[in-house]
Design brief:
By secondary structure, the chain is mainly alpha-helical. The chain has one domain. Helices cover 79% and strands 0% of the residues.
């Protein structure tokens, strides 16, 4: 039996958990809306000086994802050894780095034209000669890219919900969901830099 103090604490935690769950879905809808908007042909214009820095964003994003992957693996190592406080630091760092990646991703795709794998002449179209030049490697790239995007979309609300459970101290739900979301999050973090290095030869100077 719980005493009055424990019942009050439980009610507060449950209320906090409900608020966080609502916040998760609101944020998910906003982010998905931004991603859809990025696919439009409209792009914000910027000065040549700003464009120089914007062209650096893909390499910055690849570096961020590499850090995220290393922090995720470090967090897993810590939790397996019951170093929960250090685990929290690593996972929180991975979370905020992923948020920073998302900001960079939105800025880049709202301002810069899409780079296509195999687009050697930079005209944003793949002709037969270019397709032949890259061969089956293009299919490998597209497979990695598509799975990266799909897994990122599926895991995004799950990552937020996992952190919501941790922040509301609902550790049983946190652990249960974390077991599912961790491999998805790690896959996204690892395949992001792979896509960058495969696409790097086709970025305009």
């Amino acid at each position: 039996m719980m005493n009055d103090s424990q019942m009050l604490e439980q009610a507060v935690l449950e209320g906090r958990s409900k608020v966080l769950r609502v916040a998760v879905w609101i944020l998910t809808v906003i982010v998905f809306g931004l991603v859809v908007a990025m696919r439009s042909k409209y792009k914000f214009t910027q000065s040549l000086e700003v464009e120089v820095y914007l062209k650096m964003l893909p390499s910055v994003m690849a570096f961020i994802n590499t850090l995220v992957a290393s922090f995720l693996l470090s967090g897993l190592w810590c939790v397996m050894r019951k170093k929960y406080r250090v685990h929290q630091y690593f996972m929180t760092s991975a979370f905020f780095l992923s948020a920073l990646f998302l900001v960079c991703y939105v800025i880049y795709h709202f301002t810069m034209p899409e780079t296509k794998f195999g687009d050697i002449d930079g005209n944003h179209k793949i002709d037969e000669a270019e397709a032949s030049a890259v061969g089956s490697l293009r299919y490998l790239y597209l497979f990695i890219l598509v799975t990266h995007i799909v897994v990122a979309a599926v895991s995004f609300p799950m990552i937020l919900m996992t952190f919501a459970h941790a922040w509301s101290r609902d550790f049983s739900r946190h652990k249960k969901l974390a077991r599912r979301v961790f491999p998805l999050w790690l896959y996204v973090a690892v395949t992001g830099p792979i896509c960058y290095w495969m696409l790097k030869p086709f970025y305009l100077p």
